[in-house]
């Protein structure tokens, strides 16, 4: 097991990369959103799917042309605007919820102290 140290010197275990696959209705819109907007490097791809490097994790957009939800790729449709949750408490985190061009809801968050990832 590998231990790394967070901001305050708090030991934690390393997170191994995860794989997440999800449906999209348009691979061009997915490339614009995940690649251009979020800055994810593109990996392998085919006519039916695209791999992205999501900050060291593998996410894969799989084409589902029957998908009916459409959100503009040139902007962000926030479900919950960015804010700080649990300010001054264990687990303090900046978070936001938004949708990709196929309507998949995403939450991105950043912890004030990653050592408090599972703090109660």
Written description of the protein model:
This protein is mostly beta strands and 120 residues long. The protein has one domain (26-116): 2,3-Dihydroxybiphenyl 1,2-Dioxygenase, domain 1, CATH 3.10.180. It is 9% helix and 44% strand. It contains one helix and nine strands; from the N terminus they run E-E-E-H-E-E-E-E-E-E. It has one helix at 27-37, and strands at residues 3-5, 11-13, 19-24, 41-45, 49-54, 57-63, 77-85, 93-99, 105-111. Strands 3-6-5-4 form a four-stranded mixed beta sheet, with helices on one face. It has a three-stranded antiparallel beta sheet with strand order 7-8-9, with no helix packed on it. Strands 1-2 form a two-stranded antiparallel sheet. The protein is globular. Residues 1-5 have low confidence and may be disordered.
N-to-C SSE string, H for helix and E for strand: EEEHEEEEEE
Structural class: mainly beta
Alpha carbon gap, first and last residue: 24 Å
Beta-strand share of residues:
35-45%
Q: What gyration radius follows from the Cα positions, in whole Å?
A: 17 Å
Instruction: Compute the average pLDDT.
Output: 83
For the record, what CATH class applies?
Answer: Alpha Beta
Order of the strands making up the biggest sheet: 3-6-5-4
Oligomer state equals: single chain
Biggest sheet layout: 4 strands, mixed
CATH architecture: Roll
Unreliable parts: 1-5
> Can you identify the CATH superfamily?
2,3-Dihydroxybiphenyl 1,2-Dioxygenase, domain 1
Named CATH topology: 2,3-Dihydroxybiphenyl 1,2-Dioxygenase, domain 1
Based on CA inertia axes, which overall geometry fits?
A: globular
Helical segment count: 1
The tally of structural domains comes to: 1
Count of distinct strands = 9
* Portion in helices: under 10%
């Amino acid at each position: 097991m590998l231990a790394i140290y967070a901001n305050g010197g708090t030991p934690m275990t390393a997170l191994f990369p995860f794989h997440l696959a999800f449906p999209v209705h348009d691979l061009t819109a997915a490339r614009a959103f995940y690649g251009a907007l979020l800055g994810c490097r593109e990996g392998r791809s085919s006519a039916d799917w695209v791999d992205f490097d999501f900050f060291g994790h593998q996410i894969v957009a799989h084409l589902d042309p029957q998908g009916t939800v459409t959100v503009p790729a040139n902007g962000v449709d926030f479900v919950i605007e960015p804010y700080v949750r649990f300010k001054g408490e264990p687990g303090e985190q900046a978070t936001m919820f938004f949708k990709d061009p196929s309507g998949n809801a995403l939450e991105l968050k950043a912890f004030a102290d990653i050592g408090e990832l599972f703090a109660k």
